[in-house]
Amino acid sequence: MKYYLHRDVSWMYFNYRILQEARKEHVPLLERLTFLGIYSNNLDEFYRVRMATLSRIADYEDKSARSQQEESRLLIKQINKLNNKYSKEFEQTIAEIKEKLCEENICLIGVDELSEEQQQFVHSFFQQKLSGYINPIWLSAVKQIADETDENIYLAIKMSDGNGKSRHNYALIALPVTVCGRFVRLPDGDGKSFLMYLDDVIRFCLPKIFAGTGYTEFKAHTFKFTKDAEMEIDNDLRNGLLQKISKGVKSRKKGEPLRVIYDEKMPKDVLKRVMEKLNLDRLDTMLAGGRYHNHKDLMAFPDCGRKDLKYPEWPPILKPELSGDISILEQVRKKDRFIHVPYHSFDSYIRLLQEAAINKNVKSIKTTLYRLAKDSKVVNALINAARNGKKVTVVIELLARFDETSNINWSKRMQDAGIHVIFGVEGLKVHSKVTHISMRTGGDIACVSSGNFHEGNARMYTDYLLMTAQKNIVREVNAVFDFIEKPYSPIRFKELLVSPNEMKQKFVRLINDEIRNKQAGKPAYIKVKINHVTDPVIVKKLYEASANGVEIDMVVRGNCSLITGVRGVSDTIRINGIIDRYLEHSRIFIFAAGGEEEVFIGSADWMPRNLDNRIEVITPIYDADLKADLRQVVEFGLKDTLQGRWVDGSGKNLPWDGNDGLPFRSQEALYNYYKDSIGENNEKG
To answer: In this structure, are residues 75 and 82 in contact, taking their beta carbons and an 8 Å threshold?
Structure first.
C-alpha cells in the first residue's frame, strides 16, 4: 500500500510525544520526570520485543525472505536514526528539569558536591544498607556480559595503583536498584532537599569496596544494555515463512544484546572491553549518552514532600447507584450501567463480584483475566465465590507479556481454591475482557470492558466497562466462553464482534455502510477512540471512505499507519494523539449509520494481532444514556488542544488545533463532568 506508515516507525513517533510531554512548561515538574521515565521504559520494551523481531528477520539468510530481510534492515536504520535524534533531546530535557528542581530546592548532587556531613551519611548508608549487595566482578573473568540481567544498570570501573607505571584493572558492578532504589535521600539542609544517584553513592565508596586490592584510583562509568526478549510475530511475514524462521533461526538467540547505552566519557580502553563482552553485531544499537542511564527509575523519583510539584489529586468517583445499599445485580437488571476508570472507582466492579460471591441466586461466574494486580481483589472475590459453592471459571492468559510469572502463580492459587482455570488457547491469545454471571432466576448479567480487570491498571488507564442484563448480549458473552474452549468451532455471533471469527469483516461492513450512506446523501461519519491502527485492510478501507467524503475523526494513542492529508486519499481523516496523566486505553467506535448512530466498545485495536491472532470482544451499546456518554468522551478527545498532537504520519507531532484554538484538556474536563453529574444526581435524589 502506497500510503502506509510502518507500525514501528509510528511507535517511535508516539513515544516521542511522551518525551514532548516532559518538555511542557505547564506540566508539574515531578510529573515531567515521570514522563521521562515512561519514555525510557517504553524504549527498553520496544527494543526487547519489536527490535528483536526486526533484528532476527534481518539476520535470517534465506532467498524466500530477501524482501522482508531488506525491509527490516532499512527499518532498523530508520529507527536507530530517530533514536539518536530523540536521545539528544532527552538528555537536554533531563538537564533542564534538574536545574529547575534545584530552583525549587530539590537538589540532585554529585560526588564532588557532598558536604562533610553528607559524606559521613553516604559512608554510613553504604555500610548499613548497601555493602552486602555490592559484588564486583573482574571484567577479565566475565565470559559474556549478556549472561547478566538487562534489568540492571552497570558501572564499568577502571582502577590503578597510582604509581608512575600504573597497574590497571577493570571490574563490573551491578547497581542494586531493586533493594535500595535509584535515588538516595540525603539529610536536608538550609531549606533544601538533597538527593544522590545510587551510581554516585557507589562511586564515592569505591575505595571501601576495593580495599585490600592495592588500587587507589578509580574511574567508574555507567552503561546498560537491552536484550532480545522474544520474537513477536504479528503477521510480519507470511505464515509458512514465520514458522520456518521461528524454528530455524540460529544466528540470533533469545537473550542476545540488541542495544547498548554508555557514558560518552567512558575511556576507550574500558569501552572496548565492555563491547567485546557484549558481542554486538553491525545492526545493533550503540549509543553514547550522558553520565546516567536506565532512566525508567525516574518514575519512582522521591517527591520530597512537594505535592505542589505533582498533579493535583483526582480521587476516583463512586457512582451512587453502584456504591449504596442496593444490590448492584438488581441495579444492572433495571438498566445498563457503566464505569469509566480511573474517573470512576474500579471498586464498583469488585463489589459486583463480591456480591455475586455471596448471593444465593448466583449459580456461576465466568471471567477472562489477562493481567492481574499483585494483590488482586478480583481474584480474591472469585476465590471467595468458589468457597461459597459457586461454579467459577477463569480463562487466564499465560502469555501476557512480562506478566507470565504472576499469572502462573495466581492460576495455581485459583486451582487450589476449586476454580476451573482455562489456560488460554493454543495459537490465540485471549485478550477479551468479559465476565458472565449466571443466575437461577431473574436473568443473567454480563460485563464487557475495554481494559483488564486489574485494579492497578484502573488507577492509570482510561477504560470503559459495561454492565448489562440485555439478554442477547448476555447470551453471546456466555457463548464467548464456549468459543474459547473450542475456538475454531462455527459459533456465530449476531450482537458481538468477536475475533478471529468475524470482527474484521463486521468492521469492514460498518465502514462500507458509511460509504454507501454518504453516496446516498445520508448522514455519514466515523468517530473512533483507539490505541492502535495498523491493520492494512482497515487502513485501506478508511482511505476508501475518506476518498468518498466520509468524515473520519479519531483519537489514537499509539501506533498509527494512516497518513492523513493526502489529497484524494485521506483529506477527511483527522487524528488526535493525547498524552496526559492517564494512559488513554479505551476503545470506542461510533458510526453515523444513516442517522441511527451505532456505538461499540471493547478490547480490540485495529491491528492484525487483535483482528486475526487474538480472541477479542466488541459489544454494541444500546442504552441511550451510555451512548451519549461515550459520544461525550470521544468529542472531548477531539477538542483536546492542551494535550493533543496531530498524528499525520510525518512524526512532527504538532499541537492539535481543534476546538477553534481554545485551550481544552479532555481528561480534566471528563473528571469534572463526572464529578458534576454525581452532584446533579444527588440533588435530584
So the answer is: no
Instruction: Tell me how far apart the alpha carbons of residues 357 and 383 are, in angstroms, rounded to a whole number.
Output: 9
Q: How far apart are CA 184 and CA 422, in angstroms?
A: 45
Q: Which residue matches cell numbers 489477562?
A: 370
DSSP 540-568: HHHHHHHHTT-EEEEEE-S-B------TT
Residue 229's pLDDT band (cuts 50, 70, 90): low
Residue 645: closest CA among 27, 14, 88: 14
Q: If DSSP codes are grouped into helix, strand and coil, which group holds residue 431?
A: coil
> Does residue 105 come out as left (phi exceeding 0), alpha (psi in the -120 to 50 range) or beta?
left
The string of pLDDT tens digits covering residues 437-448 is 999 999 999 999
Region of 659 (left: φ > 0; alpha: ψ -120 to 50; beta: rest) is left
> What is the length of the chain?
685
Q: Is the pLDDT of residue 171 over 60?
A: yes
Measured CA to CA, the distance from residue 91 to residue 200 in angstroms comes to 18
Write down the pTM of the prediction.
0.91
Helix (H) or strand (E) segment spanning residue 396? strand 391-396
User: Which pLDDT belongs to residue 59?
Assistant: 74
CA torsion angle for 434, 438, 442, 446 (degrees, to 10)?
0
SS3 percent helix, strand, coil of the chain, rounded to 5, is: 45, 20, 35
310 and 303 Cβ atoms separated by less than 8 Å: yes
631-645 pLDDT per residue, tens: 999 999 999 999 999
Q: Which residues does 153 contact at the CB level (< 8 Å), separation at least 6?
A: 174, 175, 177, 199, 222, 223, 224, 293, 294
CB burial string 616-634: b at 16+ within 10 A, e below: bbbbbbebeebbebbeebb
The one-letter amino acid at 165: K
Tracing cell 521521562 back to the chain, one arrives at 36
Q: pLDDT tens digit string along 95-117?
A: 999 999 999 999 999 999 999 99
Residue 265: Cβ within 10 Å count: 11
Active-site residue list: 431
- Rg of the chain on CA atoms, in Å: 27
